[in-house]
Amino acid sequence: MGKAITIAVDAMGGDDAPKVVLEGVAQALAQDADLRIILTGSAASVEPFAQLYPDNIVAVATSEVIGMDEHPAMAVKKKKDSSIVVGCQAVRNGQAEGFFSAGSTGACMAAATLYMGRIKGIFRPAIASILPAPLHPVILVDVGANADVKPEYLVQFAQMANVYAQHILRVPNPRIGLLNIGEEPTKGSELAQKAYELLDAEVTGFCGNVEGTDILGGDFDIIVTDGFTGNVALKTIEGAASMLFGQLKEVLTASLVRKLGASLVMPGLKELKKSMSADEVGGAPLLGVKGSCIIGHGSSNATAIANGIAVTADCARERVPQILAEEVSKVALSADQH
User: Model's pTM, two decimal places?
Assistant: First the structure.
């Protein structure tokens, strides 16, 4: 690890919070001796737990929680003493270098944008989902932050994901694709065709269009799209994977003979399921804000929480937001010179 880092963690975010979050925090601390946590949430949840780790956790009691069913922007403005808002404020005030939550995605995005602030020159922050594909992780961006986009936004999404892929996933030369309905440059909507032109001209590593059937195929490290399409694609992949493993379990346990056969292949199936589990990647980075921000899945277990906190710390240690700001400045300077 090497460098002490402080991360704000929302103890109230997620379907099984705060219990599963506290378990995940404990795992993260066990794995990283240089990790410090600012734990935001109800006093009854965070204060007794923080006493168990006096050197590593500072408890910040909050009186409000933003629910999954609340309007994100309105809730963030109204509930200023919520665990999400206070966590993002800790980053803004320099008390923490990153923020992790498995709470409302919309609220996390709104709070991070409002309180951490958008990197100068970034049109729109974007949520990047790390898909645990069979061959290697694939970044799908955007997956929900921006339902309506301009071609220029997609260029920045690609540039931001490129930085994340290189510094966090350790991919030296990411291959970038544009999600479309065909491989040819002339395919798709007017938005897709214009975005293709800009990506081809301005983004190093752009390799063309990618169809839905090839998202997990291994030919691309980063796939760029608008938030509406990306979210539909992500939920479709998650639903299909869940259904497939569920049906496979039913088939393999339908009779005694099949159960005996299943015992031989079960270790391999468990290994495959683990390799494709979202728990292993921890969460989705919100790219384009001034602090490191990772948003976990609402159904995250303790392992996913721990991994999400670890990735947040990695982003801060690798200075991902600062590098994004530097890259945006280079692009702006180049544009001015032309």
Answer: 0.87
Domain shared by 86 and 167, yes or no: no
Report residue 59: phi and psi, to 5°: -85, 130
Instruction: Find the distance separating the first CA and the last CA of the chain, reported in whole Å.
Output: 42
pLDDT tens per residue, range 242-275: 777 677 677 767 777 677 676 666 666 566 555 5
Residues in the chain where the model's pLDDT stays below 50: 333-338
In this predicted structure, what is the pLDDT of residue 136?
A: 86
Cis peptide upstream of residue 18 (ω within 30 degrees of 0) = yes
The answer to whether residue 332 is domain-embedded is no
Q: Is the distance from CB of 9 to CB of 40 less than 8 angstroms?
A: yes
Q: Looking at residue 254, which CATH number applies to its domain?
A: 3.40.718.10
Question: What domain range includes position 269?
Answer: 131-277
One-letter amino acid identity for 36?
R
At 126-139, the pLDDT tens digits run 999 998 877 888 99
Residue 293's CB is within 10 A of a number of other CB atoms, namely 31
The two tokens of residue 289 are 């804000």
179: Cβ–Cβ under 8 A, 6 or more apart, which residues? Answer: 140, 209, 210, 211, 212, 215, 223, 224, 225, 229, 230, 233
178/199 Cα distance (integer angstroms): 8
Do residues 43 and 49 make contact, with C-beta atoms less than 8 angstroms apart? Answer: no
Among 251, 277, 303, the domain boundary falls at: 277
Residues 268 and 293 in one domain: no
Q: Is 131 helix (H, G, I), strand (E, B) or coil?
A: strand
The domain total for the chain is 2
Is residue 338 one of the residues assigned to a domain? no
pLDDT at position 117, please?
94
